[in-house]
Design goal:
This is SCY1 protein kinase Ppk3. One of its GO terms (molecular function) is protein kinase activity. With 643 residues, the chain is an alpha+beta fold. The protein has a domain of 100 residues: 2-Layer Sandwich (Phosphorylase Kinase, domain 1), CATH 3.30.200. Helix content is 52%, strand content 7%. The chain has a 5-stranded antiparallel sheet, sandwiched between helices. It has a 3-stranded antiparallel sheet with strand order 6-7-8. The longest helix has 24 residues.
């Protein structure tokens, strides 16, 4: 490990003409002449890989390394390792490529279908080389790599050449390098310049499906029956050699071993024209059959983006379920950043029914979204969703807020999200008002204490005056859960005066719950009053003693047992998602921000100069944007209760 650290630090100090920062080393086969490192491009932080060759350790390897760099510069193919840059100094040769990792460590976990999918990619690359006049000459499992999307990449171009004599020379230069061992081929007596890649492709197929049996070409074992016979022809005596091109064309024809939904749809992902309805339908139908075959990284980096472009044009239930399946197959890791911008664009453009379905499936995969997805554009979109005329869209929007609150930066929560919920509580739809209260209950534990007191005291007491019975009941239940959150002053001046009228409410359950809450408050306030010195004005804040009184209290201990929770859309919806939410503190929030009152306020800038956030100001903020045509039933409720 110390050797790796020393070598890495030495390489990092390379000339600025090679603008890459090297990170951790990646293990390669023990007989490789290269050392592989994860790296990032210094200018933009994009991930890449860097191969380095120690010229002192392998003095005869310089010629091979130069040849590999030269050929990778010339050859461009989707399944060939992508060249980025190269640099040479007195001690080392550097080769920068796209970000990859060796295939061999992952191969044992691959299914037969996935191995056939990978074999198609490598055969396509080898056919391209052979058609272009190149001899690769070094195809083994050790020479293959996986990119970030788990697509297979052909590497090891050290002896590759378009000239038979040059290839012979390069091959002779590999003496002493076990990785470049073609003794098994030379024993066949076939001309290298004509059949080397065909023979090696056949050996590779046996190695791929039957590890550790590369030299045994008589046993089929795990090789699919349709591939076994053509593979044997690839390694047959010289007169009946089966070329790489013959093997490839036989596989892609109708009914061939490469003619499968997963392979056909992969090809379409690269070439499909988004404006061609025929190709769009073909791709969607193929993905329905192949989505379970693809590795998680391929779904994450390739399939999801295409689905988000296609499905809005065909927003059927089965296609949306296909998107959900793709999300499920992406694993637990975060999706790439590009996915966040794509889904925001899709939500802004799609129809209302599709938007509701997409939001529902987003709820099921909320932890997979990239961290930078939860930003101001995301909250702006949520604001428009909560103003939608469609009830399902609104309820899914509230569910997204409740599920993603731990990952939203605290600045945005205080300065924008709470304002959005305040507007939602003014909705003319009573269920939206009730579900907004439930959403506040879900996000309250993630708010700063002073923000929590102001938001809950104002929002909940307002809901207590709602004419919709479930809204009043929900507000009471939320107050019971958080009654110890409020200071004695807020409890006496704001909360209790709004609960008292409910002791005469027309609903029996509300009356009983209101009485229980009032009894709790009177008991706790009585204890506080007994401990308050009469001669001290300042002791009225009672903050330390109040915390001591409620240190071991359980505000929900009696609520669940004595009162039946009303069935509500949001709670039913949230209970469907067995998600462990990620709790993280945004990098945008620092200690100084948390200590600044203005950070925790949801008021506009013109209110930031106020030292105190009065009740009248808060009520005004929660109602000032409500249109006259959409007044809530709050005023009617106040009149009925004589307030």
């Amino acid at each position: 490990m110390d050797f790796f650290k020393t070598a890495t630090s030495f390489i990092i100090r390379a000339s600025s003409r090679f603008p890459y920062d090297l990170k951790d080393p990646v293990s390669l086969p023990g007989d490789s002449i290269w050392t592989l490192y994860d790296a990032v491009l210094r200018d933009n932080g994009h991930q890449c890989s860097v191969f380095s060759l120690d010229k002192k350790k392998y003095p005869q390897g310089k010629e091979l390394a130069d040849n590999a760099i030269s050929k990778l510069k010339q050859i461009r193919h989707p399944h060939v390792l992508k060249f980025l840059n190269s640099y040479e100094d007195d001690n080392l040769i550097y080769l920068a490529t796209e970000h990859v990792r060796p295939l061999l460590p992952s191969l044992s976990s691959y299914s037969t279908d996935l191995k056939v999918w990978g074999l198609w990619q490598i055969t396509e690359a080898m056919d391209f080389l052979q058609t272009s006049g190149y001899i690769h000459g070094n195809l083994t499992c050790k020479c293959l790599f996986l990119d970030d999307a788990d697509q297979w990449k052909l590497g090891s171009f050290e002896i590759c050449s378009q000239d038979a004599l040059e290839f012979q020379h390069n091959f002779e230069a590999t003496d002493g390098f076990p990785l470049f061992n073609l003794n098994d081929f030379k024993q066949k007596g076939a001309p290298i310049e004509k059949a080397v890649d065909s023979f090696l492709l056949g050996c590779f197929i046996f190695e791929l499906f039957n590890p550790n049996t590369r030299d045994n070409h008589s046993l089929r074992n795990n090789i699919p029956p349709t591939i076994f016979t053509p593979a044997k022809r690839l390694i047959a005596p010289p007169k009946s050699f089966y070329s790489v091109h013959d093997f490839y064309t036989a596989g892609i024809k109708q009914g061939g071993y490469f003619h499968s939904p997963s392979i056909t749809s992969t090809g379409l992902l690269d070439t499909v024209e988004i404006n061609d309805p025929k190709e769009q339908n073909t791709l969607l139908n193929l993905l329905h059959k192949s989505i379970l075959v693809y590795p998680a990284n391929f779904n994450r980096h390739r399939v999801l983006t295409s689905l988000l472009q296609l499905i809005p044009q065909y927003p059927t239930q089965s296609n949306v379920e296909l998107l959900s399946t793709a999300l499920t197959k992406c694993g637990d890791e975060e999706l790439p950043s590009s996915f966040g911008s794509t889904i925001l664009e899709t939500l802004n453009k799609c129809t209302v029914p599709f938007k509701a379905l997409l939001l529902l499936h987003m709820c099921r995969a909320v932890n997979q979204f990239p961290s930078d997805f939860f930003n101001h554009p995301f909250l702006t979109l949520l604001g428009s969703i909560l103003q939608s005329n469609d009830a399902q869209t609104r309820i899914y929007g509230l569910a997204i807020i409740a599920l993603t609150i731990p990952r939203i930066p605290k600045k945005l929560v205080s300065n924008y999200l709470l304002h959005t919920l305040a507007s939602a509580q003014n909705s003319s739809d009573p269920e939206t008002r009730m579900n907004t209260t439930l959403c506040l209950e879900q996000i309250a534990p993630f708010l700063e204490e002073d923000v929590k007191q102001r938001v809950l005291s104002t929002a909940l007491t307002r809901s207590l005056r709602d004419t919709y019975v479930p809204a009043r009941l929900t507000a009471l239940k939320t107050i019971e859960c958080f009654y110890e959150t409020f200071t004695p002053q807020i409890s006496v001046s704001k909360v209790l005066p709004q609960i008292i009228p409910l002791l005469l409410d027309g609903n029996t359950e509300i009356r009983h719950l209101a009485k229980r809450i009032v009894d709790k408050y009177l008991k706790l306030i009585g204890k506080y009053a007994e401990k308050t010195p009469e001669t001290s004005q300042e002791a009225g804040n009672g903050s330390h003693f109040w915390s001591h009184i409620f240190k071991n209290s359980d505000p929900t201990s009696s609520s669940s047992s004595e009162t039946e929770t009303p069935v509500t859309d949001l709670i039913t919806l949230l209970n469907q998602f067995s998600i462990t939410m990620k709790v993280s503190v945004s990098s945008e929030t620092d200690d100084s921000d948390l200590k600044t009152k203005e950070t925790h306020s949801i008021l506009h800038d013109e209110f930031d100069e106020l030292d105190e956030f009065s009740d009248n100001d808060w009520q005004k903020e929660w109602s000032e944007e409500t249109l006259e045509a959409k007044k809530t039933a709050v005023d009617d409720g106040m009149s009925e209760w004589g307030l």
